[in-house]
Amino acid sequence: MIQNAPEVLKKLECEHPNAFPLGWREITPNEFARSQFMTYSSDFEDYRQMLPEKGEKRKEFLTYDHYRKTYLPQAMSARCYFYADGTGLAISTFISTFCWNMTRPIRYFAFGCSHFYEELSYDESRKRGLYHAGNCYHVNECKKCKHINSYDSSD
Q1: Whole-number mean pLDDT of the chain?
Q2: pLDDT tens-digit map of 52-100
Q3: Where along the chain do its domains lie?
Q4: Fewer Cβ atoms within 10 Å of its own Cβ: the N or the C terminal residue of the chain?
Q5: Is the dihedral of CA 61, 66, 72, 74 positive or negative?
Q6: Is the pLDDT of residue 106 over 50?
Q7: 3-state secondary structure at position 43
Q8: SS3 44
Q9: What are the phi and psi torsion angles at 86 (to 5°)?
Q10: At a CB cut-off of 8 Å and minimum separation 6, what does 92 contact?
Q11: What is the C-alpha to C-alpha distance for residues 73 and 148, in angstroms, rounded to an integer?
Q12: Is 28 helix (H, G, I), strand (E, B) or coil?
């Protein structure tokens, strides 16, 4: 749902189109093949040409030559797939070089929180104002980012 895009981008601190999302990390092709990409549709996707951070936040570059020698070699283009839970996946064939090279490997990335969920009881869910149908209904909260995930496991 594209209407969620601003909240997800803000959560990942990547509202600027040249920013890497929080938690950017390379994953193996096997990890990508077993990821949510193969099961769920992303909420939205974005093509990004990302620049590395300078210090805590990216600053304006002193000169074009400084930019070209220092930052451009670390730049990356990727197709990013964002999910409503604040996570995402990306595929990149371009690590900045000045000529197109068809032999560059495809690289895979994940970003956002690596969720660690803990199940909430029926009473705890109700106390916090969360819907919980009981029996085969499960409400989980990520211990790291506090994202709530719920599902019905009945057949």
Answers
A1: 78
A2: 765 444 455 556 666 666 666 667 788 999 888 889 999 987 655 555 5
A3: 2-112, 117-152
A4: C
A5: negative
A6: yes
A7: coil
A8: strand
A9: 85, 15
A10: 76, 77, 78, 79, 106, 107, 108, 109
A11: 39
A12: coil
